[in-house]
Amino acid sequence: MTQTASPAPMSPMAEPMAAPMSAPMSAPMSSPMSSPMPAPMSAPMSAPMQAPMQAPMPAPAPAFSPVMFSTAAPVPSGKAMRLSLTTTSLNNCVISNDSDAVFFEIVTPSWEPNNTKIRRLDPNTRELELVAELERSGGMEKDGMTMGGGMKKKGPDAVRLRGEQFRPVTEFLKAEDGAGKINSVFRGKDGKQYRWQEKKRQLQLIRQDEPDKPVATFHRERRYFFVLRMSRQPYLEIQPGCMETLDSLIVSFLLVERKRRGLFGSKDD
């Protein structure tokens, strides 16, 4: 009975069970839950969401624009410039070059049919400035271009250039005595005299001191089969030597071309 030493063999079994339950269970659970999980979630949520919101907003469009203008290129020097007419109308059209560096707007409002305003675009301010007005006194006159002596609306009989007082068209654009019905003379801003004439069915502008060199030529429109839509718009071919008097050139052209057509304010001009 003195050999009862049973508690001695049970102590070694308690030690191996305590060691694997404490150390191996705590280490693998704390490492994957604390470090790897927060890192991938914080990076994609912060950077991609803020970048699109900080992108610059597009600039607003200009307040004024009958036509959306781009930045006007300088007027080419040393070579002829082509100014196209958007329509065949002389009462409502736009006359401009390809880059809109030279841009004239001719408008005759329906509520003011006896007044035509001619505005020019300032390429720096991108605003239209009034350069001239044409006025009709109204009434009718005989149409010498139609058979039977029909009637037509009177053409403009007064003109005003850049803030001047209205004056008779005949003072600004004088018909040459003994010349054809089209030939007319005006004095440009440069102080030189210019003359419109029709040669080979083309309207030409010459300077009095160089009568053999046209400084402007009007090319009429072309149409498919002569009656359908235009295959080429009408345009003015302007030489660089008369750019200084371009405003007077455009105003006189409108008056002379209307006279040449013989329409004087009809719906088609």
What would your notes on this structure say?
With 269 residues, this protein is α+β, with helices and mostly antiparallel strands. It has a domain at 81-261. It contains 4 helices and 17 strands. Strands 9-8-5-4-3-2-1-17-14-13-12-11-10 form a 13-stranded antiparallel beta sheet. A two-stranded antiparallel ribbon has the order 6-7. Residues 1-40, 42-48, 58-73 and 263-268 have low confidence and may be disordered.
Low-confidence stretches: 1-40, 42-48, 58-73, 263-268
Distance between the termini: 141 Å
Please bin the fraction of helical residues: 10-25%
Largest β-sheet summary: 13 strands, antiparallel
Report the β-strand fraction as a percent range.
25-35%
Cα-atom radius of gyration: 42 Å
Number of strands: 17
The helix-and-strand class reads alpha+beta
What is the residue-mean pLDDT, rounded to a whole number?
Answer: 74
Element order, helices and strands? HHEEEEEEEEEHEEEEEEEEH
Task: Figure out the total of helices.
Answer: 4
Overall outline = globular
Question: In order across it, which strands form the biggest sheet?
Answer: 9-8-5-4-3-2-1-17-14-13-12-11-10
Task: Describe the secondary structure blueprint for this structure.
Elements lengths: L10 H24 L3 H13 L30 E5 L7 E4 L6 E5 L7 E8 L4 E9 L4 E3 L8 E3 L4 E4 L5 E2 H4 L1 E2 L8 E4 L5 E7 L2 E6 L2 E10 L2 E2 L6 E3 L2 E4 L7 H16 L8
Antiparallel strand pairs: 1-2, 1-17, 2-3, 3-4, 4-5, 5-8, 6-7, 8-9, 10-11, 11-12, 12-13, 13-14, 14-17, 15-16
Pfam family, one: DUF6593
Protein name: DUF6593 domain-containing protein
InterPro entries: DUF6593 (IPR046528)
